[in-house]
UniProtKB/TrEMBL annotation:
Keywords for this protein: ATP-binding, Helicase, Hydrolase, Nucleotide-binding
Protein species of origin: Streptomyces globisporus
Protein name: ATP-dependent RNA helicase
UniProt cross-references to SUPFAM superfamilies, sorted A to Z: P-loop containing nucleoside triphosphate hydrolases
Transmembrane segments: none
Keyword Lyase on entry: no
Keyword Transferase among UniProt keywords: no
One Gene Ontology molecular-function label: helicase activity
Residue ranges annotated for the Helicase C-terminal domain, each copy included: 283-439
Pfam family, one: DEAD
CDD domains referenced in this protein's UniProt entry, alphabetically: DEXHc_Hrq1-like (cd17923), SF2_C_Hrq (cd18797)
Phylogenetic lineage: Bacteria, Bacillati, Actinomycetota, Actinomycetes, Kitasatosporales
Helicase ATP-binding domain span: 60-246
PANTHER family documented for this protein: ATP-DEPENDENT HELICASE HRQ1
Length: 778
């Protein structure tokens, strides 16, 4: 057994805190609806599939009935075939129509790599249908000379929301024949459209529906999702349409062994003398090395681009010590690579030339990597939906497989590896998005007006916030009202107002100083922390140091170097309450939700040893502050509550700060967010509340729905937070409970026992919400 071999060696077995055995499951077959063309059924059978699974047939039936449908079943359950059968049948019908163009279909994927992979699959499946199905990718990598052919002749166009937003919709007259014939819109991996990105995509889809109606089309939406809570509700919020749900997975599954793995404590000490665990990065690199040596085909999923590069580098070095031919069997894969680099890695993975891959979620999203034996997940990916999506990459051909979750030194990861029921006995999260966020909606109203003048009839389509926003856009001289509706007034492209990935500006280009070669890009919002002067940047296994960050020209100049450390940025944050939407008494204190303004500034960076994480030093930075208007949840405590909790003024700041850190770490259990999507501030006496206050806010303009979810699940969320702190084995606080990797104050002050007493008192008087979710108790 693979896990037994991984567990051999000094102290290895003790790192496994839990092993979950998911038994194999047999499948349930059905027959295709009679409206699926026999030629399509024959092509499917030629691909080796004699009968569909029951959920595939059910989804196809809904699609052919003209009902929008979301297929929310497990990884490798055949979701692609469920929507391809009705799509290919309809395209085949259209190819026989006398009017020339016939029916068309649009496929949307969150990543370019997934669209390219799906084109390969569609082309292979539809080969027996001849020229009836003409699939083509249309994205930023499509050569200019091919784009006209795609517009004129392709009838199955594969793209992403970014290209739909910036390229297709603003140029809709050139796409008129395609849009007029549009019968289906496929939205793959729709669970990834959450938070601000999901809210933007929801408005892009409303613009698409509006233009389709202009050309006389009313396409059916077919959505594919990983297993999710209330998928029909989430899909309806995304598309603005009623959506039927197919979520009963009828496909077979091989046995999956799922291990929870906690790296050991080291002899090193971190900030304030706290004990330090071996890093999840180093542990994952070791596991990927061992799996490669055993000939086990594996992917290690890593949360950050830098982490993927670092794991690849470490694994290559260790493999070279065994056999110099082995390092080429391992590589890194992440966003930010140039198109030709991504395609080469995808081909090597498909062919089996690569045995091990350290990948970001750019590879998580649906690329068919059949034949994988194991998946190593470096740190909890933020949601149970993503965890199962990544784990499901192993065993995709039906064979037994191994998944290992390696815990980071982080409150949530530590909580999960010691509370396996929170992973294996809880439903996946609801997808959180807010299409009515004015920061999201306003630029899309401008983009829609530039495509076609907005009319009163469009108000219902774009949502209830439109009547309030239109006068503001008029006052800002972005829109002008005339008899025919609201018109875009500017010369520049309205679509450029909306950055749908939430980056907040144009990407920063990373350029090699000596050669001028473009290495890649980083989002504008991440530039201050990722490519500040002195930052270590990894690309294709090579380490670079950032020599200069030019914010005006959006360029970071780097040079190749091999420092024995990584870098982590530090920042400071202040917060102002703008408006309190709602508040609930918690004993004498209050739980509140509303609008805030956050001022953030990156002030320094730490240098940490690569393997151990030991802090080597801190360097000051001079970067401008940035302001953010967003949504927040906050709670206050009174003097009487502090007395009851035995919190004196000397430890108050540390108790609040520790509770803030841990609550940020645990919120992803309750909302589909990552701890990096949210921020927090704690103040012993806040000028707006005049009380000790802890804030947790959405890290995106206008909010993303995470703070609102926190407000509605506050009792369960803060109960889990208290449990995570209280159950940690450290004496005074560590990264596993109350220390934060992004704390601008250097994790000072913190008071672990004070935080436990404070949360105990706060929760003692907390009201119970009737719809409150449960959380496992330790």
């Amino acid at each position: 057994m693979i896990l037994d071999r991984l567990a051999t060696g000094a102290g290895r077995a003790a790192r496994i805190t839990h092993t979950e055995h998911l038994p194999p499951r047999s499948g349930t077959h059905a027959i295709w609806p009679d409206r699926v063309r026999p030629e399509v059924i024959s092509a499917i059978e030629r691909a080796g599939i004699d009968h569909p699974w029951a959920h595939q047939a059910a989804a196809a039936e809904h699609a052919l009935d003209g009902e929008s449908v979301v297929i929310a079943t497990g990884t490798a359950s055949g979701k692609s075939l469920a929507y391809l059968a009705p799509v290919l049948s309809t395209l085949l019908d259209g190819s026989e129509a006398p009017n020339g163009r016939g029916a068309t279909a649009l496929y949307l994927a969150p990543t370019k790599a997934l669209a390219a992979d799906q084109r390969r699959s569609v082309k292979a499946l539809a080969a027996p249908l001849g020229n009836a199905v003409r699939p083509a990718v249309y994205d930023g990598d499509t050569p200019v000379e091919e784009r006209e052919w795609v517009r004129q002749y392709a009838n199955y166009v594969l793209t992403n929301p970014d290209m739909l937003h910036r390229g297709i919709l603003p140029s809709h007259p050139r796409w008129s024949s395609f849009l007029r014939a549009l019968r289906f819109v496929v939205i793959d991996e729709c669970h990834t459209y959450r938070g601000v990105f999901g809210s933007h995509v929801a408005q892009v889809l409303r613009r698409l529906r509006r233009l389709c109606a202009r050309y006389g089309a009313d396409p059916v939406f077919l959505l594919a999702s990983a297993t999710a809570a209330d998928p029909a509700v989430a899909a309806g919020r995304l598309t603005g349409l009623p959506v039927v749900e197919v979520s009963d997975d009828a496909s077979p599954r091989g046995e999956l062994v799922f291990a929870l793995w906690e790296p050991p404590l080291t002899d090193l000490h971190g900030e304030k003398g706290a004990p330090v665990r071996r890093t999840a990065t180093a542990e994952t690199a070791d596991l990927l090395t061992d799996l490669t040596l055993q000939g086990v085909r594996s992917v290690a999923f890593v949360r950050s681009r830098r982490g993927a590069e670092l794991i690849s580098v470490i694994a290559k070095e260790r493999l070279a010590e065994v056999d110099r031919s082995l390092p080429k069997r391992v590589a890194a894969y992440r966003g930010g690579y140039l198109p030709e680099e991504r395609r080469a890695l995808e081909r090597a993975l498909h062919s089996g030339e690569l045995l091990g891959l350290a990948a970001t979620t750019a590879l998580e999203l649906g690329i068919d990597v059949s034949g994988l034996d194991s998946v190593v997940i470096c740190g909890y990916p933020g949601t149970r939906a993503s965890l199962w999506q990544q784990a499901g990459r192993a065993g995709r051909s039906g064979q037994g497989a191994l998944a290992v979750l390696v815990a980071r030194d982080d409150p949530l990861d530590t909580y999960l590896v010691h509370h396996p029921e929170a992973l294996f006995r809880q439903p996946v999260e609801s997808t959180v998005l807010d299409p009515d966020n004015p920061y999201v909606l306003a630029p899309h109203l401008c983009a829609a007006a530039a495509e076609l003048p907005l009319t009163e009839a469009d108000i219902t389509l774009f949502g209830p916030a439109v009547p309030e926003l239109l006068p503001q856009l008029e006052a800002a001289k972005l829109l002008r009202r005339r008899a025919s509706g609201w018109h875009w007034t500017r010369r520049e492209r309205a679509a450029d107002l909306a950055d749908i990935r939430g980056g907040g500006g144009r990407p920063v280009q990373i350029v090699e100083e000596g050669t001028g070669r473009l290495l890649g890009t980083v989002d504008a919002a991440a530039a201050h922390t990722a490519v500040h002067e002195g930052a270590v940047h990894l690309h294709q296994g090579r380490t670079h140091l950032v020599r200069k960050l030019d914010l005006e020209d959006s360029v970071a100049l780097v040079e190749q170097a091999e420092p024995p450390y990584s870098t982590v940025a530090r920042d400071t944050t202040a917060i102002t309450v703008l408006e309190t939407d709602t508040e609930i008494p918690w004993g004498q204190g209050l739980l509140c939700y509303g609008s805030v303004e956050v001022t953030n500034q990156v002030v320094s960076f730490l240098r940490r040893k690569l393997i151990t994480g030991e802090v080597l030093g801190e360097t000051k930075l001079d970067l401008p502050p940035r302001t953010l208007r967003t949504r927040a949840v906050w709670w206050t405590v009174t003097e009487d509550q502090l007395d009851a909790a035995r919190i004196n003024p000397e430890i108050l700041g540390g108790a609040l700060h520790a509770a803030e850190h841990a609550s940020i770490g645990l919120l992803p259990l309750f909302a589909t967010c990552d701890r990096w999507d949210i921020g927090g501030v704690s103040v012993p006496l806040h000028p707006d509340t005049l009380l000790p206050t802890v804030f947790v806010y959405d890290g995106h303009p206008g909010g993303a729905g995470f703070a609102e979810r926190a407000f509605h699940t506050a009792r369960a969320w803060l109960t889990a937070t208290r449990e995570a702190i209280a159950s940690c084995e450290c004496e005074a606080g560590c990264p596993s409970c109350i220390q934060s990797p992004k704390c601008g104050n250097g994790n000072e002050p913190l008071h672990k026992r004070g935080a436990v007493r404070l949360l105990t008192e706060l929760l003692r008087t907390a009201p119970v919400e009737p719809d409150e979710p449960t959380v496992p108790k330790g």
